[in-house]
Amino acid sequence: MVDEPASLDDLPDVPNELASEHPEVWERYSDLGRACAEAGPIDGETKRLVKLALAVGAGSEGAVHSHVRRGLEEDVDPEALQHVATLSIPTLGFPTAMAARSWIDDELE
């Protein structure tokens, strides 16, 4: 799995506007994402779970939604996606983990 950027049709409004107004910026951003995904030995499903965990740690609801959607499209087990929130409890704290759980559930429902 190469972590392809979302198509413009799949982007939320604000990033879609940026991509439309500054396609060269969006292209370079997408290139960076691909290069980072290809820079190491981590397999596709693990990359998706790591990226989800990073989104959880950053407290980014939109990124959590995006990585859960993309994980489901890539046939990542929904229980594995939800496990990321559980794993975050001792490191990030219960409130953060519960927020992450609710954001993950938004996409699993």
TrEMBL record:
Carboxymuconolactone decarboxylase-like domain ranges (all copies): 23-105
Ranges for region Disordered: 1-20
UniProt-recorded Gene Ontology molecular function terms: peroxiredoxin activity
Matches recorded under InterPro entries: AhpD-like, CMD-like
Compositional bias (Acidic residues): 1-12
SUPFAM superfamilies according to UniProt: AhpD-like
Source domain of life: Archaea
Record protein name field: Carboxymuconolactone decarboxylase family protein
Organism: Halapricum hydrolyticum
